[in-house]
Amino acid sequence: MSCIFCRIVAGEVPAEIVLRDSEVVAFLDVQPLADGHVLVVPRAHVAQLEDLEPRAADALFRTVVRLARPVREALGAAGTTIGVNNGEATGQTIAHVHVHIVPRWPGDGAGSIHTIFPRHIKRKLPEVGAAIRDRMT
Ligand code: 5GP
Ligand code: ZN
Questions:
Q1: Cβ–Cβ < 8 Å for 81, 115
Q2: What ligand 1 atom has the least distance to the C-alpha of 37?
Q3: What tens digit of pLDDT does each residue of 21-73 get?
Q4: 101 beta partners
Q5: Are 25 and 11 in contact (CB under 8 A)?
Q6: What distance in angstroms lies between residue 88's CA and the mean position of ligand 2's atoms?
Q7: Taking the model in full, what pTM does it have?
Q8: Percent of the chain residues topping a pLDDT of 90
Q9: How far apart are CA 66 and CA 55, in angstroms?
């Protein structure tokens, strides 16, 4: 098994686990962006969010919701930035779905999700909306 997150899920590699159940494991990021930086992963090895089984997807998001308050309160944070690098092109370095929960404080020097995008917008909203709706099954 070469995937590091699969190995953490299996207990083969140590991690600071904060939650473990039948579908999901949550543990502290080994190189935290802030104190309390948590990663939530499905037990099943799936590279991208859209490939998750509905049951695993439900469990993953439920767990993120369940952890958001304890993570924030444990660190005395004002909020949390919650996000997924979904695909190698986005900066995803581990090809096993993981949701980042990062505590935030006023004036912590980090930006919002909006700050990572240079806004190179070329297409009109109705055209984009129609294209997405056409792809929905
Ligand atoms: P990505 O860039 O793929 O969204 O984030 C991967 C995250 O996994 C990084 O923040 C990195 O610090 C974390 N990480 C990588 N290897 C390990 C590990 O062996 N243990 C833990 N706890 N976190 C890891
Ligand atoms: Zn894996």
A1: no
A2: 10
A3: 999 999 999 999 999 999 999 999 999 999 999 999 999 999 999 999 999 99
A4: 38, 82
A5: no
A6: 15
A7: 0.97
A8: 99
A9: 16
Which residues have any ligand 1 atom within 6 Å of their CB?
4, 15, 27-31, 39, 85, 91-94
The mean pLDDT value for 91-97 works out to 98
Atom in ligand 1 nearest the alpha carbon of residue 33 = 10
Contact 75, 103 (CB under 8 A): yes
Nearest ligand to the CA of 31 is 1
CA distance to 74, 99, 117, per residue, from 68 (Å): 10, 11, 25
CA distance 49 to 39: 14
Strand partners of residue 61: none
Cα 109 versus chain centre, distance = 21
So which residues are the catalytic ones?
98
Ligand 2 centre distance from Cα of residue 84 (Å): 15
The number of beta carbons lying within 10 Å of the beta carbon of residue 28 is: 16
